[in-house]
Each structure stands twice: as structure tokens, then as C-alpha cells.
Amino acid sequence: xxxxxxxxxxxxxxxxxxxxxxxxxxxxxxxxxxxxxxxxxxxxxxxxxxxxxxxxxxxxxxxxxxxxxxxxxxxxxxxxxxxxxxxxxxxxxxxxxxxxxxxxxxxxxxxxxxxxxxxxxxxxxxxxxxxxxxxxxxxxxxxxxxxxxxxxxxxxxxxxxxxxxxxxxxxxxxxxxxxxxxxxxxxxxxxxxxxxx
Length: 197
Hints:
The protein is α+β, with helices and mostly antiparallel strands.
């Protein structure tokens, strides 16, 4: 076996290699292993922001006025809602927009234990627009909440939901009512955002 230049190897990489019971021959290709492992790790442990990023823009929120703005006005400013709900007598509807900033919690960085105990921390901003039966805005409310969820619990919640996307169905029907286009990709991007409890 010939000697090659030394590479910095993390403890996690050493444990992973031993756990796999794989004997690696030192070669020129091995020089890329630390780079590949670091790239994959950086991707898995990165932060993500999804949803409607414009709901934090105060200039856009100031363009919406209770008693004057309509559903078409709100759609023009923020795009399609991410959820739609109706009162029991259907006299009012509520559009919900949200932005989620997710980041891995500290347990994700602990080798092996992170696979079991790791999860995500989320900062969720929601803006609610409540409309009357004539599609006029009667109330607007903003809500910010921080939450965390274990990775296994999140997978279970997503698996139980399956391919069903009730939000997209409601949003599609609402955008059709006001004659605006429906973006299925945008609806799918927020499919697994947890409902407010």
C-alpha cells in the first residue's frame, strides 16, 4: 500500500466507514471523499425558506385596506392564497398566506443520535384575510409562531397525509371563483406545512 497525502477526516466519517464494514483502498479517487461527504452534509443540514416571502413586506401590507380591498386586490398583491377556509354558513371566507423558515435543530449535528433525535425548528408567519360574502376584506391578522418537530414525527405526519392535498383543492376552487389562475406547483410547495393548532 502506497502512502498518499493526509486528509482531514471527521469523526462522523470514520464512524460511518467503520459501520459500513467497508475497506477502502487509498487511491486518487479517495481524495474526493471528504469533499463529497461535506457537500452532502451541508445540503442535509441547511436552512430552508418556503411559502410566500412577500407577506413580511410592510409596503405590500399597507396596500391592503379593510372595507375597501377585494379578493382580486389581495390576489394581485400576494398571489394565490396557500389555504382557504369558509364559515359554516359560507358567508365569510378566510385566505391564509404563510412563510416558513426551517432549520435543523442542534440534535441533527450529533453523529448517529441525530438520526433518531434530530428534527427541525420552524418559524412560521401567517397572514389571514377574512372576506364577507361580497368578497370585501373585513379583517386582516398576522400571526408568528415558532415550533419544532422530530424528523420521524414529520415523516409519519406526511405519510399519513399521503397524496391527498385538501388545501390545493380549496385554493383551486377559490381562484376559479374569482377568475384568477391557479398555480399547482405553488400549492404543492406548501402541501406539508402543519395546520395551526
